[in-house]
Design goal:
85 residues; globular; single chain; mainly beta; two-stranded antiparallel ribbon
């Protein structure tokens, strides 16, 4: 059986969990296998602070145990997109 190649693809939906255990969804807008641009929905922190929708640029780092690992390289408010698809 062939093993599927792990990488983010446009249209994937992610669940993001933050250090304070608040969560939100993110949507992959573009990906080339090494970098990805995701739209992170607005959310409230555990203390109730509202965080608006943002665009994050991710950079893939070496996988561990067949998992995907990305590092946030930059982020901006939703209206500014640093990388065109």
């Amino acid at each position: 059986m062939e093993t599927a190649k792990l990488e983010l693809q446009r249209g994937d939906i992610l669940l993001i969990e933050f250090v304070d255990m608040s969560m939100t969804f993110a949507y992959v807008m573009a990906s080339d296998g090494i970098q990805a641009r995701i739209k992170v929905d607005s959310y409230r922190t555990r203390r109730g602070t509202h965080i608006g929708t943002k665009i994050w640029m991710l950079q893939r780092i070496d996988p561990v145990h067949d998992s995907l690992y990305y590092r946030v390289r930059s982020f901006s408010p939703e209206k500014r997109t640093p990388w065109k698809s």
